[in-house]
Structures are given as structure tokens and as C-alpha cells.
Amino acid sequence: MSKDRRSSLSAEESGAGGNLGGESLLKKGRWTSAEDAILTEYIKKHGEGNWNAVQRHSGLARCGKSCRLRWANHLRPNLRKGAFTPEEEQRIIELHARMGNRWARMAAELPGRTDNEIKNYWNTRINRMQRAGLPIYPADVCLRVLISSQESLDIGSLTNDFGQHDDVSQTRQF
């Protein structure tokens, strides 16, 4: 097949998923304000969800993943940009003590913040604390997490699989 014919095929027609022997029909790199406007308008009209459809039907020469990331990390109307508030910082510390590195789950608990933002904040904080020779978690956070997990264990031991009390003295033997 000639090079001209190959480059005129869409990714769907070629079956190559957008990559024709090293040539890509999809744009990479910085987004333009025109592309941002197209993506924003498409999302307003059709909603979030099927990101590959966004790529196919919006006229953008970007892959679905790129569209999703651009929307989630830069264009979403409820995004909060800038430094974390002291309350958000405290919440991240507590969430990390409970969940570990589950950034997407943490982002769900912090409206308007992205998983990547939270991860970057946490990693910067850890480096700063380690350089200063300080503990990663403040003592009060450790204590709250310990008490919370202990309460969960105590409550769990009081009920059986059916949510009924396991106290033998309260069950009747016939």
C-alpha cells in the first residue's frame, strides 16, 4: 500500500489503533485553547463517559485517554487549583494513614482535587519530612487511626456473618 493511502486511512479503518507503522494520526503534546473549547463543548452536550467516542465524534485528533485526562486534570468546572488548604492537608494525611497510596479513592474524598495532585502533594511532603528527620504521620493521626481500626475490630467480633450477636448466653439451646 502506498504511503499516501496509508496516511489517509483512519485508525479504525486500518485496524492499527491509530499507529500505522510508527506514524500516528493522533496529535500529541500541548493542547491548544481551540482544542480545549471543542472538548468542553462536547462534554457539555454529551456528558462524560465514553472517551473513545469523544475522540471519534468531536473532531479532535486526540486519543480517548488524552481527552479524559485533559478534562479530569485541567478543564473540569469543579476543579480546585492552587495550594491545598490546611484542612485539605490534614485530610490527606488522615486518608493516607487509613488507605495508603490509593490516590483515586482519596480524590473522591476531596472534591475538586485530582489523584495526581494529591499524589504529588504527598510525595513532596514525605521528602520534606524525611529530610527534616520528622515522622511522616503526626502522633494524633496515628492514634485516631489506631482507635478507629480497633473499634472496627471490636464491632466485627461482636457480630457473626448474619449481623447477629455471638454471645452464647443469649442463644437458646433446645
UniProtKB/TrEMBL annotation:
<dbReference type="InterPro" id="IPR009057">
    <property type="entry name" value="Homeodomain-like_sf"/>
</dbReference>
<feature type="domain" description="HTH myb-type">
    <location>
        <begin position="26"/>
        <end position="75"/>
    </location>
</feature>
<dbReference type="GO" id="GO:0048235">
    <property type="term" value="P:pollen sperm cell differentiation"/>
</dbReference>
<protein>
    <submittedName>
        <fullName>Uncharacterized protein</fullName>
    </submittedName>
</protein>
<keyword id="KW-0539">Nucleus</keyword>
<dbReference type="GO" id="GO:0040008">
    <property type="term" value="P:regulation of growth"/>
</dbReference>
<keyword id="KW-0677">Repeat</keyword>
<dbReference type="Pfam" id="PF00249">
    <property type="entry name" value="Myb_DNA-binding"/>
</dbReference>
<dbReference type="GO" id="GO:0003677">
    <property type="term" value="F:DNA binding"/>
</dbReference>
<dbReference type="GO" id="GO:0009653">
    <property type="term" value="P:anatomical structure morphogenesis"/>
</dbReference>
<feature type="domain" description="HTH myb-type">
    <location>
        <begin position="76"/>
        <end position="130"/>
    </location>
</feature>
<dbReference type="GO" id="GO:0005634">
    <property type="term" value="C:nucleus"/>
</dbReference>
<feature type="region of interest" description="Disordered">
    <location>
        <begin position="1"/>
        <end position="25"/>
    </location>
</feature>
<feature type="domain" description="Myb-like">
    <location>
        <begin position="76"/>
        <end position="126"/>
    </location>
</feature>
<dbReference type="InterPro" id="IPR001005">
    <property type="entry name" value="SANT/Myb"/>
</dbReference>
<keyword id="KW-0238">DNA-binding</keyword>
<keyword id="KW-0010">Activator</keyword>
<feature type="domain" description="Myb-like">
    <location>
        <begin position="23"/>
        <end position="75"/>
    </location>
</feature>
<keyword id="KW-0805">Transcription regulation</keyword>
<dbReference type="InterPro" id="IPR017930">
    <property type="entry name" value="Myb_dom"/>
</dbReference>
<dbReference type="GO" id="GO:0045893">
    <property type="term" value="P:positive regulation of DNA-templated transcription"/>
</dbReference>
<keyword id="KW-0804">Transcription</keyword>
